[in-house]
Amino acid sequence: MDLFGYALYSSWKGIPAPPCAYERDDGSRAPCNIGDYFTVSAEDKQALRLARGRTLDIGCGAGSHALLLQRKGIEVLCIDTSSLALQVCRGRGCKRCRQMNIFRHKLHPSSFDTILLMGTNVGLAGTLDRCKRLFRICSELAKPGARLIVTSKDVRTRTNRQQVRYHRSNLEAGRFIGERRIRFTYGRKTGNWFKWIFIDPVTLRTTAHASGWEVESIINAQRGRYSAVLHLASLTQRTLR
Ligand SMILES: C[S@@+](CC[C@H](N)C(=O)[O-])C[C@H]1O[C@@H](n2cnc3c(N)ncnc32)[C@H](O)[C@@H]1O
């Protein structure tokens, strides 16, 4: 079941949410406030000031970032794998919404001026290899000079003993430090396990660079979270690589 979409949809319908959390496969739980998906943080607003032109919001959730841009007259295409999330987006006023997995998209190449991966959505790639693929997909969909706005987290800032142990076990198993297996819980209901990845600004720079993206600015937030604005180097520069 699409439990996250169900949580967004129920919250939008005004049904009081039971306690929600992201449970990791070592048993740790991070509480999740569904209401947060209906607002845009100050850091995200700052990064979104650089959005312009035709915009693609990958994994749009409740559509909060898309709505903010739409109000400024920016045309946004919202995509998400969750039909429930997209019902919320449409209901809240997002004009263009399509159910789609970004890894199996059927969008035209070179058609977006700005691409968003908000809500730590670089993470939906799950592993560092798929992150590289995600950045490549973004560069194929982007027009030359386009911007990519992403948010993620530097997990090395976490000093809690259980976090440190989890990150060390990743390294010992030959995985990237920021990879995790998690599932969403909504009251007593639990969703399926899936992989998520947090990447630090240095790894972002090198991983995205391989597909032609250059980091323009980084906005640091609390607890290792950050937003980054990248731009696509010109076609000639990309061909020379
Ligand atoms: C953490 S939420 C972020 C939502 C929104 N961007 C925000 O910041 O409020 C991740 C969203 O990405 C969607 N998603 C996950 N994997 C996806 C994929 N491969 N393609 C498109 N959407 C995906 C999920 O259904 C979910 O709505």
Helix content: 25-40%
Q: What is the number of helices?
A: 8
User: What is the H-and-E element order?
Assistant: HEEHEHEHEEHEHEEEHEEH
How many β-strand stretches?
Answer: 12
CATH class (first level) name: Alpha Beta
In CATH, the architecture is: 3-Layer(aba) Sandwich
Write the layout of secondary structure elements.
Layout: H1 3-12, E1 20-24, E2 29-32, H2 42-48, E3 55-58, H3 64-71, E4 76-80, H4 83-92, E5 96-99, E6 112-117, H5 128-141, E7 142-153, H6 161-172, E8 179-186, E9 189-190, E10 194-197, H7 201-209, E11 213-220, E12 225-232, H8 235-240
Parallel strand pairs: 3-4, 3-6, 4-5, 6-7
Antiparallel strand pairs: 1-2, 1-8, 7-12, 8-9, 8-10, 11-12
The structure holds S-adenosylmethionine.
Characterization of the model:
With 241 residues, this protein is α/β, with parallel strands linked by helices. It has a single domain, classed as 3-Layer(aba) Sandwich (Rossmann fold). The protein is built from eight helices and twelve strands. The strands form two sheets. It has a seven-stranded mixed beta sheet, with helices on both faces. The N and C termini lie far apart (43 Å). The C terminus is likely disordered. The structure holds S-adenosylmethionine.
